[in-house]
């Protein structure tokens, strides 16, 4: 069991990550490749990932270089999931490269004494081998995570909207209560059970960063080193998607004040009842309009307890942005160039 001990100050310092954490998603997606747990939930991704790794010639790199460093076990090195990863892949990889060699040596030693580490892992203290590791992580991310980033962003946006809704109605303790079936809020302690190790973390005013994860399955994960800023990676709710009804109307059926109002309400997350109030219609009528918006791919709906929360999809968000900024004209492209790194095997 893992237990986070809160003070009243810690309750004011609970945060939720605003973006997917690139390095954590790499880590737990590698875990998905090592087990059949959750295979049905990730079946389309798993098939696409295996094909992409084979096409890009990365199968051996993943098997012999990455999987030994990210075992699906009670420990893997903390330096591989630095906090900078919350600011994007490049920032996270730069932090991996910049890790002091003493810390790398210490964490690799813990890995060796636990599940075991390959003989070459001790050389990760050398920058050359860590550069190879960074190249491998970047290539892996490009092959199996980047193609799914839009879906991951959409799900994270829905999760943050759910938390915002809970905070408004039930406060921080309500948020902590609804994180998932293995996470239990027993004031003033947040318990994660089961957990592979028995640990007590006293937050002592540091607060806790919650990192929702697309690839984390059932079991939340925390950093092993108690001296690092406390974080808890936990799985997004894996709920069956709402199935669109047959004969969905075309997009031009969306034009009109009622659906426009519901679409705007979904920008910050809204239940059917709240959307109805915003649009000035009954909940039954609002439910019909949310079905149309969902069928058109403009909103997504997630059931939580006895309510359904509606949030924007990237297409819906783009439509609202375009409606608000059409007079400004298109801006310059911000799409970064795609680079193909050279990945070599560890010596």
Distance between the termini: 38 Å
Overall average residue pLDDT? 84
Strand order, sheet with most strands: 3-4-1-5
The helix fraction, in percent, is 40-55%
Tell me the structural class.
alpha/beta
The helix/strand series, from N terminus to C terminus, equals EHEHHHHHHHEEEEEEHEHHEEH
pLDDT < 50 runs, ≥5 residues: 238-253, 325-345
Largest sheet entry: 4 strands, mixed
Can you count the beta strands? 11
Q: What's the alpha carbon Rg, rounded to whole Å?
A: 22 Å
Describe it.
The chain has 347 residues and is of the alpha/beta class. The chain is built from twelve helices and eleven strands. The chain has helices at 8-11, 22-32, 43-55, 59-66, 89-98, 101-113, 127-144, 149-177, 257-266, 272-279, 283-295, 314-325; strands at residues 2-5, 14-16, 183-186, 189-192, 199-202, 208-213, 221-222, 231-235, 270-271, 299-304, 307-312. Strands 3-4-1-5 form a four-stranded mixed β-sheet. A four-stranded mixed β-sheet has the order 2-6-8-7. Helix 9 (257-266) crosses helix 10, helix 9 packs across helix 11 (283-295) and helix 10 (272-279) packs across helix 11. The radius of gyration is 22 Å and the shape is globular. The model is unreliable at 238-253 and 325-345 (pLDDT under 50).
Structural key phrases:
about 15% strand; disordered C terminus; 12 helices; alpha/beta; about 350 residues; 11 strands; 4-stranded mixed sheet; globular
Describe the SSE topology.
Elements: E1 2-5, H1 8-11, E2 14-16, H2 22-32, H3 43-55, H4 59-66, H5 89-98, H6 101-113, H7 127-144, H8 149-177, E3 183-186, E4 189-192, E5 199-202, E6 208-213, E7 221-222, E8 231-235, H9 257-266, E9 270-271, H10 272-279, H11 283-295, E10 299-304, E11 307-312, H12 314-325
Parallel strand pairs: 1-5, 2-6, 6-8
Antiparallel strand pairs: 1-4, 3-4, 7-8, 9-11, 10-11
């Amino acid at each position: 069991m893992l237990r986070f001990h809160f003070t009243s100050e810690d309750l004011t310092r609970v945060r939720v990550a605003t973006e997917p954490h690139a390095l954590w998603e790499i880590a737990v997606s590698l875990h998905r490749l090592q087990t059949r747990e959750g295979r049905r939930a990730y079946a389309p991704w798993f098939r696409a990932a295996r094909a992409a790794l084979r096409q890009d010639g990365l199968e051996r790199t993943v098997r012999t270089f990455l999987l030994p460093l990210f075992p699906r076990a009670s420990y893997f090195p903390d330096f591989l999931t630095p906090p900078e990863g919350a600011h994007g892949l490049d920032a996270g990889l730069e932090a991996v490269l910049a890790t002091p060699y003493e810390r790398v040596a210490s964490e690799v030693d813990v890995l060796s004494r636990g599940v075991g580490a390959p003989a070459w892992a001790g050389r990760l203290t050398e920058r050359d081998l860590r550069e190879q590791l960074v190249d491998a992580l970047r290539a892996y991310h490009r092959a199996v995570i980047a193609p799914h980033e839009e879906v991951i962003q959409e799900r994270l946006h829905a999760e943050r909207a759910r938390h915002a809704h809970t905070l408004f109605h039930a406060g921080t303790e309500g948020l902590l209560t609804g994180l998932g079936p293995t996470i239990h809020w027993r004031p003033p302690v947040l318990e994660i059970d089961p957990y592979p190790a028995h640990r007590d973390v006293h937050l002592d005013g540091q607060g806790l960063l919650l990192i929702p994860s697309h690839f984390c399955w059932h079991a939340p994960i925390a950093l092993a080193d108690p001296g690092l800023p406390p974080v808890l990676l936990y799985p997004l709710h894996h709920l069956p998607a709402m199935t669109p009804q047959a004969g969905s109307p075309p997009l031009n059926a969306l034009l009109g004040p009622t659906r426009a109002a519901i679409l705007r309400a979904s920008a910050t997350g809204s239940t059917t009842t709240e959307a109805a109030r915003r649009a000035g219609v009954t909940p039954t009528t609002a439910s019909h309009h949310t079905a149309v918006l969902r069928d058109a791919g403009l909103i997504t709906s997630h059931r939580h307890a006895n309510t359904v929360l509606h949030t924007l999809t990237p297409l819906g968000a783009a439509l609202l942005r375009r409606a608000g900024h059409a007079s400004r004209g298109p801006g310059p492209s911000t799409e970064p160039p795609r680079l193909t790194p050279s990945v070599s095997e560890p010596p």
